[in-house]
């Protein structure tokens, strides 16, 4: 592995948050929306920091959804995961 690859790998490992840390980054409205969707099998995957506020990314098997800071749920988000 080259020096650049080591640096990228080191950076990624430092930014990994556990589930509780992601949960703490969500707003109250997002938590309520996720609580409602939890009964359908959706789970919090991670939180993205966007200019308009945090966006919670949730998953249920192969389905992905977003919950915006105001609690609005987008069941067909334009999101690409790597």
Could you characterize the architecture of this molecule?
The protein has three helices and four strands. It is an alpha+beta fold and 82 residues long. A four-stranded antiparallel beta sheet has the order 1-2-3-4. A hairpin with a 2-residue loop joins strand 1 and strand 2. The protein starts with a helix and ends in an 8-residue tail after the last strand.
Give the topology, please:
Layout (H helix, E strand, L loop, with lengths): L2 H12 L4 H6 L3 H11 L4 E8 L2 E8 L2 E5 L5 E2 L8
Antiparallel strand pairs: 1-2, 2-3, 3-4
Q: Which tags fit this structure?
A:
four-stranded antiparallel sheet; disordered N terminus; 35% helix; alpha+beta; single chain; 82 residues; 4 strands
- Distance from first to last alpha carbon: 21 Å
Per DSSP, the total helix count is 3
Number of strands: 4
Order of strands, main sheet, comes to 1-2-3-4
Largest sheet: 4 strands, antiparallel
Q: What class do helices, strands and sheet pairing give?
A: alpha+beta
The SSE order reads HHHEEEE
Mean pLDDT: 82
Shape: globular
β content, as a range?
Answer: 25-35%
Q: Helicity, in percent?
A: 25-40%
Q: In oligomeric terms, what are we looking at? A: single chain
Could you give a short description of this structure?
This protein has 82 residues and is of the alpha+beta class. It has three helices and four strands. β1 and β2 (53-60) form a beta hairpin.
